[in-house]
Design brief:
Layout lengths: L12 H4 L6 H11 L3 H17 L2 H16 L2 H49 L3 H6 L2 H43 L1 H9 L1 H36 L2 H9 L3 H53 L5 H22 L1 H19 L21 E8 L4 H4 L20 E8 L15 H8 L7 E6 L2 E2 L5 H6 L17
Antiparallel strand pairs: 1-2, 1-3, 3-4
Length: 470
């Protein structure tokens, strides 16, 4: 069972409370996972084989104690010992095979999801970026993508492994001695209920930790550039920024300590339950050996098996929560992939090959678009951006013609709409009404690539990427 916060899925118990697995979401998950179906089958088969191989050593020990040693058959002892060694080597091989398959599937999914998200975000209109928290968006490309990948590898592998190990081990135990098997399960309820609560609590604090990390990413992205650094310095906000960042970082530190403590308590308790189960098996089993009910080899095998059942049993108590929280990551990724792209090429858009440069505004009115049409509510700053849709026109009935070869200066007060005119020509936004034409063509009838290739814009706030000149 994955109890550490670094392995938890994005999402908490509240996010999945009362929810059911959505078949539509599952089908979409399979769309991304289907290119790796061969690897997934290999991954699951390796889990099943590994679970079966894990049953070999206890039966080997039983045969050595009950048969080989009393008979004094050295050849059989050597054979059984080599069989145990072979099982160990094969188990090691299967472990490496599992890791190879999971890495291949997981890293492939991370690549596919990140590229799909990056491509989608690149196609979003400028209005999307004016309303979106950068840190939250980056968190989708990092934390949620990794969480979605874990749904297919870690969560799927964990659930399948727990079920297979549990079924095979309990089957083997009931075959050997059903009374001792039932005895080993008596102590489980003492631990399962608290373990489930610990798992839910870890989900909650892991969600808080991820939210805080996203907030710190946003703060760093906005402050660690020329404009942001200049603003902080001009307003003398150095200490205030440090205090805000320090408060979030302190909470992340405290959550890390708390989650580490929860995880340690869980594993200590799991070990304690395993020890109690083994004590119960040896204690009661010893009386059964004395009375002739079972053999010593059977007792040793049962004690070995009992160590294998508690962890998968406990892991399955939170299986639904893990699956649902993993699917939440996929849904958060799908939320971005499904976001409407407000500005797209029309079906019959044409390329402008040799632009002359005649520009015309024909009774243009413009109002910034509402958030629902260009943004994602969960990526906006709560209480500030959401619900703040503009209710006035920035431009009203503007008509203007600029002939090719002429130079025109547009002068106005701050906020009069000068930059907006330039953005409408480049189709960073679409007009609310009226038409913007380039060489007689409505800019909405031109392909975006050819339109922007024909236009040069020098913004008042130049931005340099951290790349080579090329």
């Amino acid at each position: 069972m994955r109890m550490g916060p670094h392995m938890m899925m994005p999402g908490d118990a509240d996010a999945v409370k009362g929810r059911k697995i959505d078949r539509t979401s599952m089908s979409r998950v399979w769309v991304f996972a289907s290119p790796y179906k061969t690897a997934i089958i290999g991954f699951l088969l390796s889990i099943i084989f590994a679970s079966a191989v894990g049953l070999v050593p206890p039966f080997v020990f039983r045969a050595i104690i009950d048969d080989a040693i009393p008979s004094g058959n050295r050849g059989r002892i050597w054979f059984l010992a080599m069989l145990a060694v072979g099982a160990a080597l094969f188990d090691a091989f299967l472990a490496i095979t599992q890791r190879w398959y999971s890495a291949r599937i997981g890293e492939g999914l991370i690549y596919d999801l990140r590229v799909a998200l990056f491509d989608k975000v690149q196609r979003m209109p400028v209005a999307f970026f004016t309303r979106t928290q950068t840190g939250s968006l980056i968190s989708r490309l990092n934390n949620d993508v990794v969480g979605a990948q874990s749904a297919v590898t870690s969560t799927l592998g964990s659930v399948v492994s727990n079920v297979v190990v549990l079924v095979m081990t309990l089957g083997a135990m009931f075959t050997l001695e059903w009374r001792l098997t039932l005895l080993s399960l008596v102590v489980l309820p003492i631990f399962v209920i608290p373990a489930k609560r610990v798992g839910q609590r870890l989900q909650i604090i892991a969600r808080e930790q991820m939210d805080l990390n996203a907030q710190m990413n946003t703060q760093m992205n906005e402050r660690f550039n020329v404009s942001g650094a200049l603003l902080v310095k001009l307003f003398g906000r150095h200490q205030g920024e440090v205090n805000a960042f320090s408060g979030r970082a302190a909470r992340v530190r405290d959550i890390g300590i708390l989650s580490a403590l929860y995880g340690r308590v869980f594993f200590v308790a799991l070990g304690l339950v395993g020890a109690l189960g083994a004590v119960a098996i040896y204690g009661i089993g010893a009386f059964m050996v004395v009375s002739g009910g079972i053999t010593i080899g059977t007792l040793v095998a049962m004690a070995t098996f009992v160590q294998r059942i508690y962890q998968p049993l406990t892991g399955l108590t939170n299986a639904r929560l893990e699956v649902m929280t993993a699917l939440v990551s996929f849904e958060r990724v799908f939320e971005v992939l499904d976001a409407p792209v407000a500005i797209t090429d029309r079906p019959r858009a044409i390329d402008i090959v040799k632009p002359l440069g005649n520009i015309e505004f024909d009774h243009v009115a413009f109002r910034y678009p509402p958030g629902a049409s260009v943004s994602i509510a969960s990526l906006e700053l709560a209480g500030v951006m959401q619900g703040s849709d503009p209710d006035t026109d920035v431009l009203v009935d503007v008509s203007l013609r600029v002939d090719a070869g002429s130079t025109v200066a547009i002068v106005g007060t701050s906020g009069a709409g000068k930059t907006t005119l330039a953005m409408l020509i480049a189709r960073m936004y679409d007009v609310t009404s009226g038409v913007v034409r380039l060489d007689g063509n409505d800019v909405r009838d031109l392909t975006g690539v050819s339109l922007r290739a024909a236009i040069g814009v020098v913004s008042q706030d130049p931005h340099m990427f951290h790349e080579t000149i090329k």
